[in-house]
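Subject: Sanity check before I submit

Could someone independently write out the structure tokens for this chain? I want to compare against mine line by line before I put it in a report. The sequence has 571 residues.
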Amino acid sequence: MADVNTLALLFGALLLTAMVATSLTKRLGTPLLLVFLGVGMLAGDSGPGGLIFNDFELSYTVGNLALAVILFDGGLRTRISTFRVALKPALLLATFGVAITAGITGAFAAWILDLPLHLGFLLGSIVGSTDAAAVFALLRNSGVKLNERVGATLEIESGMNDPMAIFLVIVLIAAATSGSLSPADMALEFVRQFGIGIVCGGAGGWLVSRLAKRLTLPESLHPLLLLGSGLALFGATAKLGGSAFLAVYCAGMIIGNRPLPAREHSLQVLDGLAWLAQAGMFLLLGLLTTPSRVLPELPQVLPIALFLMLVARPLSVLLCLPPLRFRWRELVFVSWVGLRGAVPIVLAVFPLLAGVEHALLMFDAALAVVISSLLIQGSSIAWLARVLKVEVPGYPDPLAQHSLHGEDDAHWLLVQYRVAAGADIVDAPCTQLDIRQGLAETLGVWRQGMLLHPESSLLLRADDLVLLAANEAALPELGERFAAQQSGKQLDAQRFFGEFYLHGDAQLGDVAMFCGCAMPGDPDLSLADWICATLHRQPTVGEQVALGGVTLTVHEIEGGKITSVGLKLPG
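---
Independent answer below. Compare away.
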């Protein structure tokens, strides 16, 4: 019993220390996962903690379960609507992109570490996939919001590229241990992994979403229902020989895009569990790390990390995305945001457990890649997004929100906002928020400890708490209305979208006449259709096109169609 109590004390103390240390991450711009890693290293045998931990098998087990939770949570937050603009590029990066990255990095690693070529490719596969969970955590903390196409591409890629990296690692370990593996066997394994994973994920997600809707449970138990379902699906898919990671991501995506009881509460709980999973993984990695062994190897392994960031990842992006009409700024940003995180930790344990030659060296190299990526790329993502102009104005989320379930499938919420000082709605009637009719309704105003009934004569004041019933589609507009004028570090909406807003159905001839420029096409064409024809692809919010001397920026999209366009005058 003493051992159990000691273990609980140590893990609790480590986790608490790491959580307290996270307050420094916003000030220093340090990725949160590095804090967990550092705490683990300090507690390890080479640090003041002096704990001796070298159980790679336990780390493998914990890592797999942690990845299942992380990917399931990521799937729950992936909107199906983003697939219309990002599925093709994300699929290319998650398959061919991972293979290209692994191949180029593996060849370089084999050369610089003097390894057999197949072991170099194994190391390249271990570090071949990205971890967008850390990326978007950094972006949320910095207040930067990416344009939908770039953000969705990175999000979907991160959820779908892990199975490809795992497939490559399994195949290469089999080749290293058995001596040979035919192309037919590789193709069969690929079809089995991805086919079973997609089928199990789709069927499991559909069943769980129906089960969650039919069961009558207290709100506090719904997150446990989802977590248990996700872990059970993970284990069942692995038993059938499919990609369990792909299955839980697909299942989470299907569940998250269907009506779900206690949705917000479940997402909050699972978000915390996903962070706990990542924290546990990096704490274990820190405990496994022996600086006295790793430091002498740094001159060999650090060039691999730099090569991956500066050559392999950019080259894979340049080979996959240009045919899909990405702008050069977007290509540079996607190339740089190849952040490595949780997955290489687990994959680097595979060769150790399989008894592959030079496995410990590959583990140390993967460690160097993860640390370098988090330090160099992780600390520069927000700055680079602003420099490359791939961000769009972001507005605050509600202080609180709760799902309202009606007879239809429309997602209605009970939301609460605070009126910021300097917001446009200060001194405006609380019943007139300039939100499209039928999408939001004020229910009450909480002021100085009193709940006031919404009346047209009641004027809003700074610091009021406003309670509304709103459709999910109205949240961006509500956030814009309640937000204060944005300060210098944030992207100001007027500077970004322009001084005027035009309806997407406005005729191109009228707009060209207003701007005083030559007619660029059929004057009877709608502005929305002309922008789509000019871009040659599905538009997203923040897309910009030039019309004479003015800049037109897509402001709002509904149902895949442009409904509002910002017009920015020269200068």
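---
OP: Matches mine. For the report I'm noting this point. The CA atoms of residues 445 and 466 lie 5 Å apart.
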